[in-house]
Design a protein that fits this description.
7-stranded mixed sheet, mainly beta, 11 strands, single chain
C-alpha cells in the first residue's frame, strides 16, 4: 500500500521560510515523478511544482517561481519543498503526490500539511 506523508508545515511570518518533506513508502520511489500542490480556503487546487523521477527536471508555477525549490532524495524516498520569502497568499494546505513516469495523472496523494503565513 502506498503512503505519502507530508511534514514540516506550520505558522511562519511573511518573509520567512519553511521546508516541507514528503516521505513515500510502498512504491518504487525512483520511478515516480513527484508533485506539490496546494489548496487555499475558497480556492481551486494549485499545482505548485514538480520534479521528475531522476530529479533532472523541475516545474514551478509562476506564483512561486524564484521562491520555492523542489528537490528529492531517492535514497531516502523523500521529496522536499523549500519555501522562501513566504507571503500570506501562500497560506494553504500543501499536498505531495506521486505520478508514475509513464502517466499523465497523479496516482497517489498525501493527506496534506497546513502552512500559514502571517502578515
Amino acid at each position: 500500500q502506498v503512503h505519502l506523508v507530508e511534514s514540516g508545515g506550520g505558522l511562519v511570518q511573511a518573509g520567512g521560510s519553511l521546508r516541507l518533506s514528503c516521505a513515500a513508502s510502498g512504491l518504487t520511489f525512483s520511478s515516480f515523478d513527484m508533485g506539490w500542490f496546494r489548496r487555499a480556503p475558497g480556492k481551486e487546487r494549485e499545482h505548485v511544482g514538480a520534479i521528475s523521477w531522476s530529479g533532472g527536471s523541475t516545474y514551478y508555477a509562476d506564483s512561486v517561481k524564484g521562491r520555492f525549490t523542489i528537490s528529492r532524495d531517492n535514497a531516502k524516498n523523500t521529496v522536499y519543498l523549500q519555501m522562501n520569502s513566504l507571503k500570506p497568499e501562500d497560506t494553504a494546505v500543501y499536498y505531495c503526490a506521486a505520478r508514475d513516469r509513464g502517466n499523465d495523472i497523479y496516482d497517489y496523494w498525501g493527506q496534506g500539511t497546513q502552512v500559514t503565513v502571517s502578515s
